[in-house]
Design goal:
4 domains, Phosphorylase Kinase, domain 1, flat, 21 strands, seven-stranded mixed sheet, binds S-adenosylmethionine, 31% helix, five-stranded antiparallel sheet, alpha+beta
Length: 474
């Protein structure tokens, strides 16, 4: 096969090129093709991993890699296609090598970053006045007008990211934040990350998005840019939670770490914690001085609006009945579990439509997938076929509690609707009969406080479920 044919075979059909140059990007039926010299692709992938580690909530904006190959001298990645953003609303992209410095009044710079167009003071002031209790300054139109006249120097270029960064997605997570931004200017980026907002270099973009969608973030970014002085001091945030939660978990959950935070961060953390329990322990946030909580849009949205969050290859013919869909472990979470579960052979005691079993098999494990229902096993087998791993999984119809224990490790995701008693029974049975294992539990399940918890978050940072692990030495 020649090079174009090899590329088309990876793309699953003909390719429409979106970007040329040293690292071309194209769209094919299977996903977005990204190719370039191995060193450049490796660097980009490392940046992506770092960004994801720092901002787990960003996972919905960064498309997962479906396939990887080598064509000629280039490494080729096929990434999930998150759809094309509306160009008018695209975020700015700063390609490597561009260095166009602009010094201009803030108002003029704001008209150069997406979303297109200038800014109007009246709606921002109105929105700020509604939320004045959480503001770092007193909202006066003259103050904002003066800020818009302040000169600033930044580096800008325009383009768009293939990750479909839309206002809705940014709003769900917070404000935008670009990788590769330096302390005194914005440069080279190809996707947006979400808050907490703590880097003045991206404040310009944060102001622009916030102006339209989230006035408190815009206000905070104006302070970070130094064009408006904060008239209030920092807030101290304290949290009580299940002791098994890690500091990183608390940060993901609240959008900021306990300690000194800005007013906007404290208000949002307060809003996120309202009515939330993890491991059966209520999350309690207190602020000194006390400030009112703020609703965080999107934080409580149910997961899985886009079925590709459940299975990246959903559109290749994945089969799920309604209950299997509702109880499926989304691919990204299933992959994280598969990466840490010990053992070469895993008994998946409640396999459902195969969310976890497929991830285990793709991680190189052998899997014994058990379910009482023949139709669920048929879905799991079919779905495993789409991922090319059906031959690594033995599908077995039966009752997990009644079957023998043919491996050292088990994974348990019993149906939550059956109630906590069944979950507890499955966990007890697993611990008794298997040396190692993990059990997936609803976040409200009362986990003894001495057990460390592994929390799985939705891309919005909402705690979707908890995992508890056990290991006995042989
Ligand atoms: C929550 S779902 C599993 C979802 C799966 N982890 C996934 O990601 O697709 C639970 C499954 O357990 C099955 N089940 C219920 N009781 C069972 C039992 N005693 N033994 C084996 N399977 C059982 C149900 O039919 C259901 O398909």
């Amino acid at each position: 096969m020649d090079v174009p044919e090899q590329l088309e075979s990876l793309a699953g059909g003909s390719i429409r090129w979106l970007q040329q140059g040293r690292t071309p990007v194209g769209r094919g039926p299977r996903g977005i093709l990204r190719l370039g010299p191995a060193a450049i692709i490796a660097e980009e992938e490392a940046a992506k991993r770092n960004t994801l580690a720092a901002f787990p909530a960003l996972s919905s904006l960064i498309p997962p890699t479906i396939m990887q190959g080598t064509v000629g001298d280039n490494v080729v990645l096929v990434e999930a296609d998150l759809g094309e953003p509306d160009r008018g609303q695209a975020v700015p992209v700063f390609p490597p090598g561009t260095d166009q410095s602009h010094t201009a009044p803030l108002g003029e710079l704001l008209s150069m970053v997406a979303p297109a167009g200038g800014v109007n003071v009246t709606p921002l002031i109105r929105a700020l006045r509604r939320q004045h209790a959480a503001l770092p300054f007193r909202p006066r139109a003259a103050l904002i007008q003066r800020a818009l006249r302040q000169p600033l120097t930044v580096t800008l270029s325009r383009g768009w990211a293939h990750g479909a960064i839309t206002p809705g997605r940014l709003l769900a997570g917070g404000v935008c934040h670009w990788r590769h931004s330096g302390p005194d200017r914005i440069q080279q980026c190809d996707h947006a990350a979400v808050g907490p907002f703590d880097d003045p270099a991206v404040a310009l973009c944060a102001v622009k998005w916030g102006w339209r969608f989230d006035a408190l973030h815009a206000a905070e970014a104006l302070v970070a840019l130094g064009v408006i002085a904060s008239t209030t001091g920092p807030i101290t945030l304290s949290v009580t939670a299940h002791p098994g939660l890690s500091a990183a978990d608390l940060r993901t959950l609240l959008g900021c770490a306990p300690g000194e935070v800005s007013r906007a961060q404290a208000a949002a953390a307060h809003g996120r914690a309202r009515g939330l329990s993890v491991g059966g322990v209520k999350i309690t946030v207190t602020t000194t001085p006390p400030i009112p909580p703020r609703a965080v849009p999107g934080f409580r949205q149910p997961r899985g609006r886009d079925p590709r969050r459940l299975f990246a290859r959903y559109h290749d013919g994945i089969r799920l009945d309604d209950d299997a869909r509702a109880s499926l472990t989304p691919q990204r979470a299933a992959e994280a579990i598969a990466a840490r579960i010990p053992g070469k052979t895993i008994v998946d005691g409640f396999c459902g439509a195969g969310g976890n079993a497929i991830a285990f098999a793709r991680a190189g494990k052998r899997v014994i997938a058990i379910d009482t229902r023949a139709d669920r096993l048929a879905q799991a087998r079919h779905n495993a076929g789409i991922y090319g791993v059906a031959d690594r999984i033995t599908f077995q119809q039966g009752d997990f509690f009644a079957l023998p224990t043919p491996a050292d490790t088990c994974f348990l995701d019993p149906p939550w609707a059956a109630g906590d008693a069944l979950l507890q029974r499955a966990w007890d049975h697993g611990r008794k009969h298997y040396r190692c294992g993990m059990v997936k539990l609803p976040r409200t399940f009362e986990v003894p406080t001495e057990e460390p918890l592994e929390v799985s978050f939705t891309p919005e940072g909402f705690p979707a479920f908890v995992m508890v692990e056990w290991r006995r030495s042989a």
